Each structure stands twice: as C-alpha cells, then as structure tokens.
C-alpha cells in the first residue's frame, strides 16, 4: 500500500468546499447555497426538501438544476449474522476500463454525535489571534450538518457517509426523551450509509439497538411522537460484537463497488465496551479484540477481490490541548497523538488504508504506520472529508487524503431536517421548560485538585436522600461517578430539560451492603496502575483523606474514613447507594458488584428533581456545597 498523505499536506490538493476556518468563498456560497427556486435545485438536499422523500428504492439526484429520481441498490434485510453485503451501496458510476485508470471515492465521516440535533455550546479552535488568544468558531447543529454533508456529497458521486460510533446514547432531551428515534430519522434524511456501533449504542441494551435498525415502536413507551418509527435506512456494523460462534450482532463489514473497484468498510467498537455499559445492556454478547478482528477479516476480503479497506472504529486518540482540527500533535511517539488508536493502527494489517476513529471526542488528522487516521471531534461539529484514489487495475488505494471540515452555521439549513427538529421541539418543550428548582450559583462538573465537584456532590446528596428511608434502602452514603454528569447546571432556575441534559442515561438507584473494608477498597480503586484517576463523588457526611504521593493501593488512610464524623469500622456493614451503572461494577469499580442485599430505587433524574424541589425555591435557591469532603495530603 502506498504511503497515505493527509490532504492538508498537499499543495495541489482539491480545495474543500469550505475553508478550514469554516467560511465560504463568497461566490461559492451564492452559487451552491442559494436554495432553489421553482423546480430548480443545487444538490440532493434541495430535492429532499422540496419534493419530499423519494420513491422506494430510489434517491434524489440534482442534474442540470432539476430533481431526478435514480434507482439505487438496496441490500437485503440483515439477519444480524452475515459478514457484510457485497455491492450493497452506491451503484456503479461508470464502466470499468472506459477511460481513466483510477477511480475517485469520497468518504464523509463523523463520530460521537450523541443525538445532538440542536446547536451544541462548544466551539472549534481555528487559530491564534494577533494578541495570542485563541480564535474559535461556533459549529454544529444537525440542520447545518445536513447542508455541509449535502454540499460535500455533491463534489463526488462516489460518496459514502460513515459514523464511528456513539451516534446515539447520552443524548440531550430532544432526542433522548424519544429513545433517540429523532436522531435516526434525521440521519435517514441526511443519507448516512454506515455506522459502527459504539459503547453508548448499548445504553438501552442490544434489543433496543436492534430496534433502532429494524424499526417499530418502543415496547414500553410506544411511539411518543404519535406516529410509527421506520428504523434506520443506514446499516449498523459490529465486527467484534459476537452473539455466538461466527455470529455477530450486526454485519462485520460492508463492501461497496465504484466503477468496478471494491471498497470494504469494517465497523466495530472498543473491546472494553462492557466496562462502560451496565451488564444487562451487553448480556449475551462478547466483545473481541479490535486488531485481531480486523486482521482475521483481511484474507476473507481479499478473496472477494477487495484491496481497499477502511476501518471505522469507536476507539480513539488524544492530541495536544490547543491543536487545530487537522493537526496530529500529541504526547505520543514522534510528537504525534497518543492513546489506544495509535497501537491499533500499528497492529492492523498493512492492507488497511484508512482508520476512521472516535470515542475520545477529539479532532485529529494523522498518518500512523502508513494509514490515514482521523477523528472529527463530537456532536456534529466537524465532518472528515476523505478522498481516495483507487487503481482500476489493482483495486489498491493509490492516494488517500483527509480534511476535517468545520460544520459552520453560515450556510442554509436543510428544510426537511429543520422540520423534523421543529416537530420534536414542539413535543418536548412543555416538559423541558418545567421548572424543578433553583440554585444560587452554577453547579459545575469541573473538579478541584482533590477530585471534588459541586454538581457531583449535589447529585450524590439527592441520591442519598432518595434512598435514606429504611423502606427505600436505608442508605448511609451515596457515590456518584463523574462520567455520569454531562453538563453543568446554570445559576438560577433549573428546568427539567437542564436536569435531563446533566444526567441523560436514565439510570436507576441501587442500595447495597458493603463492609468498611470494602469501602476502603472502593476508594483505593480510584487510582489505577495505568496512571488514570477516576474520583467518586460522595454524599454529605462522608469524608476521608488520601496521600497523593503514596503508592497506588495504599493512598487512603482507613482511620480518616468517616460517616457523619464517626470513623468507619472495617468489619462493620454499611448501606451504600450508587446508580445501577456503578452498582454493576462498571467504571473499574468491581467492589460495587460484590455488594449484598441489593434494593432498586428511583431513577437518578427523578431523585435530583425531588431533591431540588425539597431544598430550593425562588426566594431561597440551593447553595453550592462546600468542596470539603475529600482531603488531599502530600
């Protein structure tokens, strides 16, 4: 395989439709995004907007400024066990050996969308101002995301749109309240082709994930929007998620053919997915090693005449803070990014040409071990435009170029997607705007040097209060995991929508019995041999001290562990509350799984709502708790 080259390093590369900073060339903006008047169109998105969904087994195409329906090849229904459906994508765009010796294929990629239909609050760094400060631009929002995808797709008829996991799950209220059906419907409109499963695809279990593919109303809540749910028109891939011997939850890969040249897309999630999902969500599933999975598929693909291989995987890397979206700077070898994706890229067979990654919510554009490795941040703020030049004679990738394109908001929104978002906004607004409490200052997820956060403490306090009565668990302490908090709660009135955004998982509370010795083990597990630290947030009345310089496994002073000022006895038993994610032993805390006399409780968001209602009012908002429960010693 030839050395892959990022587009950003090529002086002669085809210019992107958008500038890196996200602004259009004025003339291009007027030409490509003025919409269409009468029956005229500029791209397929205009056709979908003006004409509605195409007929079955067809797709809109804008030709000579007029909307035409072209037939498409539709793959047969998946049984969940096949190894990918050859030739199940875009029909051949030409006749082999009819002139050019190469074929141009475009892959548009993104990751970690997390049901972010509305405009996210984060910004994308684009450069440095003359005064040395950062230059940032607002980015994201599915209506703008749809337009950028459509405009990029219009540059090449041989286009495949892929996502590297966490398309759904941990979603804002607008999508999460409806079990992420709105996101699937939006991606159907946009024309997503393939998505590798991520860990959050399993938040509601594999049965619910299968419903996302096949459609049908939710088995408990029904179709909350009042109509049916057709399921995904795109295909989920799960090469390393086994349901049995030689059987996978979804197809392992998908092969698409362009002008006689085949391209394979292998989709999978990180092997450690069970560590970040409740056990019931992955029951009966085995998550296999990513590198071994891909390398075992290479001979099979080559027997099918496939030489171009793209891996779409929900695992990623870490760039240096402050890196631009098309850089690859980090703390790894040779100053490149670090993280699991680096070792994976080096371990994968050289037959792999491109790795589309995710999971870490970072942006980077790299070449690692001769493979193009990309990630497009998160929440639909970027789209990675990957251009492949394929040899018609050999099927090999002759050249691979990538460019992370910012999803700016200076483009025309796609009307059909806008209508979908508006529909769900109208359905969710009454519930989202309901005031459930008041806080005197912003409650933050950000932690201090000891790992304490004001929001984490309030959530832990709410969980303790919800399970403290003897009939509800008799809890003496509650612990909250930092990863379960997804957003701050701003000063002032707190709405149900804000509370849901903070805790979007719908976890239930579990109260269980641990000994004092097990509680000490629990606290010691906060520091990992790998160097990672994951500090639990305890409820009011629980205090302890640790030494930051002591060896891992011996950092907590047992004598310092107290509940309401009383030292914890290592031989006594205590009632402890955690959400069902933690209580199952997830996040690397297996001690929770050893707890006995388990009793289920309220949903975490309901507990927070009840706590705010009981302890705050407009006249007397809830104060932020003091950060004094964990003491860090030298």
Describe this structure in words.
This protein is α/β, with parallel strands linked by helices and 634 residues long. Helix content is 21%, strand content 26%. The protein has 14 helices and 30 strands. The strands form eight sheets. Strands 8-7-6-3-18-19 form a six-stranded mixed β-sheet, with helices on one face. Helix 5 (181-190) runs antiparallel to helix 9. The longest helix is centred in the C-terminal third of the chain and has 18 residues, at 415-432. The termini are far apart. Mean pLDDT is 87; it is low at 1-38 and 72-97.
List keywords for this structure.
634 residues, globular, 14 helices, 30 strands, alpha/beta, six-stranded mixed β-sheet
